[in-house]
Amino acid sequence: MRPKYLFLLALLLGAAAAGAVIGRGAAKPGIKMSEFGKMPDGQTIDLYTLNNSSGMQVAITNYGGRIVSLTVPDRNGKMDDIVLGFDDLAGYLGNNPYFGALIGRYANRIGGAEFTLDGKEYHLAANDGPNSLHGGLKGFDKVVWKAHEVPGAHPALELTYLSKDGEENYPGNLKVKVVYTLMGNNALQIDYSATTDKDTVLNLTNHSYFNLSGQGNGDILKTQMMINASQFTPVDANLIPTGEIRTVEGTPFDFRKVTAIGERINGDDEQLKLGKGYDHNFVLDRNGHGLQLAARAVDSDSGRVLEVLTTQPGIQLYTGNFLDGTIHGKGGKVYGHRSAFCLETQHFPDSPNKPKFPSTELKPGQTYHETTTFKFSIIH
Ligand code: BGC
Fold this sequence. Notes:
The chain is mostly beta strands. Helix content is 8%, strand content 37%. The N and C termini lie far apart (47 Å). Bound molecules: beta-D-glucopyranose (BGC). The site of beta-D-glucopyranose has 9 residues, from strand 24.
C-alpha cells in the first residue's frame, strides 16, 4: 500500500478505536476545571471534574472540599449520580446538612462544646444543642481550599488549607492536606494529612450522602448493609457517646451479617429512638494498621455496590433521619426522609472528653495521616 493510503487507514482505525471508547461512555482519564459560582465577596469557586477510563466521574469543589457529584454505572452500564447535593455553589452557601463536605477540625460531636487539653479548657461554639458539631460555625466544610492537580497515573486533586491558631477556638496553626484520587477500578481514595505547631485535637472525614439508586430516587431502606464492627458506642439524649463500648450482638446494630438498613430501623430499641434511626459510631473490627474493609452497601435494584475501606477506628452510619423533604437538590430532586445514608469514617465522637477512646490528639512534630476509599462495583 502507498504511504498515503497507509496513513489514511491508520487515521480511520484510530478514529474507530476512539469511537469505541466514547461509545462505552468513557472519557479520557483526567481533570477538567470549570467555574462553580462566586462567594458573596466575589471570589470565584471552581469545580474539578475527575474522570477515569471506565467512565466514573467525580466532581469536587474547592468550597468546603465537597464532593458535588459521583457518577457510576449500574449493572446495565447506565450512569447515575449517586450523591446528594446542589447544581451550583449558591445551593451549598445556603442551609444544608454538610452535603459531600470535608469535615473538620472535629468531625461529629464534642459534648458540651468544650474539652480540656494539657490542663487548658477550650470552649467551642455550641451549634447542635449544647454540643459542637462538625467543626463549629465555620468548619472546613465552609472554607475555601487551595486546589492543585497532582501529576501521576490517576487523576488526583490536592486541597490544602491553613487553619489558623484559634480558628473556631481550636489551638495550633494546623496545615491540612486532602488528596482525592480517582483510581481506574472505580475507587475514590481520600488521603488526609495534617501537622500542627501546638498540641491540638483533630478528626477529619467526608460527609457524602449516598443513594445507590441515584440521588433523589426514593429512600435507602432497602439498601443491604454490612458493617465490619462487633461493637458500637451508645449515645445519650444529646447523641454524645456515654463512654460505653457495647457489643452489637442481639441488637439492631449487628450488621456483621448483611441486613437491609430498613429491616430494624423502626424497632423498639432505645438507641434507635435516641438517634431517630441509625446515627451511631461503630467500632471497627480491625487487624493492625492499614486500609481495611469497614462497610459494604448493596442496592439490588441497580446492582451498585459501595465498599468503604479505611485506616480509621470508627465509622458513623447516619441514615438521613433529619432529611424531611424541605431541601430540593440537583435537578430539582426532593430529598425526603432517609433518602440517603452516610458512612463517615472517623475517630469516635467526643474523644477529647473520653480518655478511654483512641486519642485524637495531634502534637507538633507528628503527622496526622488517614485514608478512606469509596470503591464502587456491581453485582448481577
Ligand atoms: C450526624 C447527624 C447530623 C448529620 C448532619 C451526621 O454526621 O451524626 O446527627 O444530623 O451529620 O449534620
